[in-house]
Specification:
The chain has 489 residues and is an alpha+beta fold. It is 35% helix and 21% strand. The chain contains 16 helices and 18 strands. The strands form 4 sheets. The protein has a 7-stranded antiparallel sheet, with helices on both faces. A 5-stranded antiparallel sheet has the order 5-6-10-8-9. Helix 1 runs antiparallel to helix 3. The longest helix has 21 residues. The protein is globular and about 75 Å long.
């Protein structure tokens, strides 16, 4: 069995049921082409895109409506069949992949992709869970509106999965995480009931905000089938710059200057270590160094405004000039075109691919208070250099909101046993630093199965107790995505 993919011991499986009868019932309910049972057909749905783990499913099912999702959930609840909700399967923590038992059913939302409504007056869109993020972006262009969520996998990531994992992305500094962009949800509960919470209200002070339970829960409390999302006006001007700096401390100081000078119109503020940039320029063809010289670290920043007539270019140039005079900035290039801006972003987006070229990676998706980012990086580099000297440190990420992807690359020749031991060593030295700096072990990728044991070791006991009580109250049979995020034993 794959690490992290074990079946929870407290799930009540019905070993006497007839799986053939269940498949027959599902096929009758959903349609002939909506139930996959052959391993070769299931492959894309039982293996995540990184391929770190692989599972086995009783079936992959494709409902096309909320009512079909409810019917599927009710049938599985009746026969104690565990369900694994799945969107675009772009997650990085194993939360949407079945275990290796072959007893779980993967419920794919990929055929529920309608945009039900775009309300430009209320600045909202109601979309189904299977709507691909990039498709929503495209659909909003004629309406002069945006949904300000941008992630590397937006060409395949689906709205339901984005909400279920409370995705972050590049623009959290300006707009917040997914939680702050959702007004209402439609959810199928573990017993098959439909919770109609698709509210479009900006204010609703009527007790518990139930939608918050399902955001970030990774499908363990119910299946999100639709959402009401906040929209914003299209940006009239965007300025993008790639900047060389002497240190992470200088980057933090520049963030403060830019936020003050721009009136908080900093749209993205991405930290890139010299190692991370060098990997891209060395291993990814067509990605030359944007500054022509090597510096200790870099920033990719973006300012944006929906206000016509704003001169962000002059503002950015003058702020960078002042920062250079203070020694905070060593060099900078401001994009002269949309094409050049895309080239800058391509450098950032190809870091993970370049990292895979040189070795096997250990990935930390951590967050600390923004003010603590430089100190964390300094401390982490020191402890890793001492504990794992053979590791190449690849640090990059969303410095503007305190989320750093702190990755370690190890030689490709490392044995699986040595890799597992090194991974444990890395966690043992990094996690205490996170506690020291009041951080989190998962900023935007979730817990799934791969970080479940880490959560148990890192989260306070009372937090875990409360999470288990919520899970028990909403899903007492532990049917929804069992073994992900938290176990109920």
């Amino acid at each position: 069995m794959q690490p992290g993919a074990c079946r929870p011991v407290n799930y009540r499986y019905d070993s006497g049921m007839n799986h053939h009868a269940i498949i027959t019932s599902l096929t009758k309910m959903l349609g002939e082409n909506a139930v996959l049972t052959q391993p070769q057909d299931q492959q894309p749905y039982v293996t995540p895109w990184r391929g770190a783990i692989a599972g086995k499913a009783l079936a992959i099912v494709f409902p096309t409506s909320t009512e079909q999702v409810a019917g599927t959930v009710a049938l599985c609840a009746q026969h104690h069949i565990p369900l694994v909700p799945q969107g675009g399967n772009t997650g990085l923590a194993g939360g949407s992949v079945p275990d290796t038992s072959g007893t779980e059913i993967v419920l794919s939302l990929s055929r529920m992709k309608r945009i039900r409504e775009i309300d430009t007056t209320n600045h909202t869109a109601i979309v189904e869970a299977g709507c691909i993020l990039a498709s929503l972006h495209d659909a909003l262009v004629p309406h002069d509106r945006i949904f300000p969520m941008h992630i590397a996998s937006e060409g395949s990531a689906m709205i339901g999965g984005i909400i279920a994992t409370n995705a972050g992305g590049n623009n959290v500094l300006r707009y917040g995480t997914t939680r702050e962009l959702v007004l209402g949800l439609e959810v199928v509960l573990p017993d098959g009931k439909i919770w109609h919470g698709l509210k479009k209200l900006r204010k609703d002070n009527t007790g518990y905000d139930l939608k918050q339970l399902f955001m970030g829960a990774e499908g363990t409390l119910g299946i999100i089938t639709a959402a009401c999302l906040k929209l914003f006006h299209t940006h009239r001007q965007t300025e993008t710059a790639f900047i060389g700096l002497p240190s992470a401390e200088a980057a933090l100081a520049l963030l403060t200057k830019l936020r003050q000078a721009s009136g908080d119109r900093v749209h993205a503020f991405e930290y890139i270590s010299d190692t991370a940039l060098t990997l891209v320029t060395t291993h990814i063809p067509g990605h030359p160094h944007p500054l022509g010289e090597i510096y200790p670290c870099y920033l990719l920043i973006e300012l944006a405004t929906a206000q016509p007539g704003d001169d962000l270019r002059s503002l950015l140039e003058s702020t960078l000039a002042d920062a250079m005079a203070e020694g905070l900035v060593l060099n900078a290039a401001i994009a002269e075109s949309t094409s050049q801006a895309r080239q800058f972003w391509s450098l950032r987006e190809h870091i993970s691919e370049a990292e895979r070229q040189i070795g096997k990676g250990i990935h930390f998706d951590i967050s600390v208070p923004v003010s603590a980012v430089p100190a964390f990086l300094t401390h982490a580099d020191a402890v890793i250099a001492h504990a794992i000297p053979e590791a190449t440190i690849v640090a990059f990420g969303h410095m503007g909101d305190g989320n750093i992807h702190y990755n370690l690359s190890l030689p490709k020749t490392i044995t699986p046993e040595a890799f597992a031991e090194t991974k444990n060593t890395a966690a043992k030295v990094i996690y205490p630093l996170l506690k020291t700096h009041h951080g989190s072990i998962s900023a935007e990728h979730g817990i799934g199965t791969l970080r479940r044991s880490d959560l148990a070791a890192f989260k306070p006991a009372l937090d875990l107790q409360l999470m288990r009580k919520i899970k028990q109250a909403i899903d007492p049979e532990n049917q929804m995505n069992p073994g992900r995020v938290i176990t109920t034993d």
